[in-house]
Target: BtpA/SgcQ family protein
Amino acid sequence: MFWTEELFGVKKPIIAMCHLQPMPGDPYYDQEGGMEKVVECARHDLLALQNGGVDGVMFSNEFSLPYLTKVRPETVAAMARVIGELKSEITIPYGVNCLWDPIASLDLAVAVDGKFIREIISGVYASDFGLWNTNPGETARHRAAIGAQNVKMLYNIVPEAAKYLADRDICQIAKTTVFNNKPDALCVSGLTAGAETDTQVLTQVKNTVPDTVVFCNTGTRKDNIQRQLSVADGAVVATTFKVDGKFENLVDEKRVKEFMDEVRKMR
Model:
């Protein structure tokens, strides 16, 4: 039995993203609406996701565009405030994602009792955000130093808007990532948020590392989730839950329920 079944209580869990609005320091922060607006939008999405029946939720600074690879402290502080205010209303397992900084993500997880993080933790990439380097050894040691050994680490091995600098195929990357880093899960993505993950790539990764949890990380919809879950051990889902299926909108509870109805047919 994978750890996911123990944590979420189901096979092939759906982790829904709770995308936080721009926060202080972000280029598109709404100073007039302030942090109260950020909290209220997050509360709306959290409750819609929970009412819709998802298995877990992950809080992310998704609208902190363009992203940093070293997140600033004001972002971590703002995210901690939002999650802290909502904590009494959270009824399902939750994690965090400070884009794109695994150290900041671990710090936030420890502060708010998050059960998992998802990040780019290993590899070197050419990306829209510049040359993107990582230091998985430093991240692993920081995890131990702050007492985060029980925080599950989901390694995104196909980062959005970026390409691995070395000429290596996805199976090689999956195999060596598992050997060198012992990730709790691998996440396989499409090109951008909302872009469908290639089922053939998912299959290749899962066949390469059958004893490791593999998540479909982007682009699942009501019409493809059964196909994706026939291969993947779960999915991280966001855009399809939004009003009209648009990335920038708030969550539509009806769309969540319809999606989860399809998921339950798989289980």
Observations:
- The first helix runs from residue 3 to 8.
- Residues 22 and 29 are 5 Å apart (CA to CA).
